[in-house]
Specification:
2 copies of one chain form a homodimer. The first copy, chain A, is about 40% helix and about 20% strand. Chain A is α+β, with helices and mostly antiparallel strands. In chain A, the strands form 3 sheets. Chain A has a 4-stranded antiparallel beta sheet with strand order 1-8-3-6. A 4-stranded antiparallel beta sheet of chain A has the order 2-7-4-5. The structure holds a DNA duplex. Chains A, B: This is Nitrogen fixation regulation protein FixK.
DNA sequence: CGCTGTGTTGATAATGGTCAATTCTCGTGG
DNA sequence: CCACGAGAATTGACCATTATCAACACAGCG
């Protein structure tokens, strides 16, 4: 309902990567047509399923995750509004991880034929999705780095910085605050720590005046402070590709 | 030199995914032509470089890694013989992480035009590389899980299991042993632990009779033991895709 | 009003990091 | 053949981070 004013979030995200035609835009907005609501913590796809629909997140947070035999759960990726869970075209591989909602979500399922059609008919959209895949992979590598090389507070700070940047690209975060309805237990499964420890690390960030988290809203009080704690460099998210066609104003001096 | 007998490792790897024509094979073997040797610990590409060659590993171990401002290094992926560092076709994105050798390597640089040509002229190869990309992404998610949810010994065991499976697909590992010329310091940067701790965890695996590591060769003494410690499930590496065309011998009973 | 899930706290223990010294290995030159 | 030196592996002592367990507070909701 709110989206009808600003356009669907996928369109907003892709428009940042490529220039879309009005036909592209119509097509993208059409995807949101059959959207449905799902409650929080709903499993959507199980590990080793072979998916037959792409899934577009219109509202709420979803994630990829794995359950381990020892009972622990690891979240491997967040799907925010505008993110698309894609099908692979050539193969039908069983999923290496499950998919589910974290918060209440509005999702559009896109059946395989329709999805394949879209890719074929809309080269600009295909291109933008290809770009999204690249930054997705870069994000996975960044998470590996985060989990492998940073302490608790740094990890959490890094995660919060990433969320800020990602939510901003679809207009869901203002300069320094966003809606953040994530459970501490889910944060624990994201950051590879116990939820007691998540709680304490959150308190530390609060004590240090870096963030304020009340209700389901996060405010970053000292953005530079948080970024420097996290050693955050968001360039993996906004790939400054070499310009496609240098505009006439890009004339080198001399 | 040794490869001339068994074919280049990329060809061996791709043949596992798709059926290659003799033309494909000739093309793949041709890639190894201009190969050169690089010493261990050689940087090949820096973070934020825009690469102009794909890189094929023929021999030795290379890796992707990031340096953090705090001095730590995190390895995010191993490139084993047969693995290809690919270029992206549509964009020229700056790299989100660096690339370098771990051990002495034999590498073939494939200039962008030649690489693009290969993809265009050889649909089967393109398809197989696409598959390789999918398992690469699955491997990144598995690493996230490994770093986030497993203890030191489990993490190391998991890593060793993955190496075994991956090296086997190119014939570089036997049933339960392989050449493993990796430094403990590099292992530490891989697994997100200090190298002192890596040393102690290795000793624990040895004490428990799971592995033997001497010289530069690893022997897995109790494969089931190591796998169960790691809770290892290698299905993310060998995606049992739904068969392309059921062969006539695949007739269901009744 | 009393669930139920979530957040918070304290006490205690396990895991893993840091520092510093020592040994081992192996290639190089004498 | 041996001495040497550099990098790698190993060890011990000590400390920091983080997990675990258990109790309690708090909020939203039927």
């Amino acid at each position: 309902m709110i989206e009808s004013e600003s356009g669907n979030p996928l369109r907003r995200k892709l428009a940042a990567h490529v220039e879309l035609t009005s036909g592209d835009v119509r097509e993208l907005d059409g995807l949101a047509a059959g959207a449905r609501r799902y409650p929080a913590q709903t499993p959507l796809l199980h590990q080793s399923d072979i998916p037959e629909s792409a899934i577009l997140v219109l509202d709420g947070f979803a994630c990829r995750y794995k359950f381990l035999p020892n009972g622990r759960r690891q979240i491997t990726a967040y799907l925010l509004p505008g993110d698309l869970f894609e099908l692979d075209l050539d193969f039908r591989l069983p999923l290496d991880c499950a998919l589910g909602t974290l918060t209440a979500c509005r999702l559009a399922l896109i059946p395989r034929p329709e999805y394949e059609d879209l890719i074929r008919r809309r080269p600009r959209i295909a291109r933008a999705l290809q770009m999204a895949r690249l930054t997705e992979a870069a994000t996975l590598r960044e998470w590996i780095t985060n989990l492998g090389s940073r302490s608790g507070p740094e990890r959490l700070a890094h995660f919060l910085c990433e969320m800020l940047l990602r939510l901003r690209t679809t207009g869901l975060a203002s300069e320094n605050q966003y809606s953040f309805p994530i459970t501490q237990a889910d944060l624990a499964d994201t950051l590879g720590m116990s939820c007691v420890h998540v709680n304490r690390v959150l308190q530390k960030l609060r004590r240090d005046g870096l963030i304020e988290l009340s209700g389901r809203r996060l405010t970053i009080l000292r953005p530079e402070g948080l970024k420097s704690l996290a050693e955050y460099d968001g360039s993996y998210l906004k790939p400054a590709a070499t310009p496609l066609r240098p505009s006439s104003s890009d004339r080198p001096a001399a």
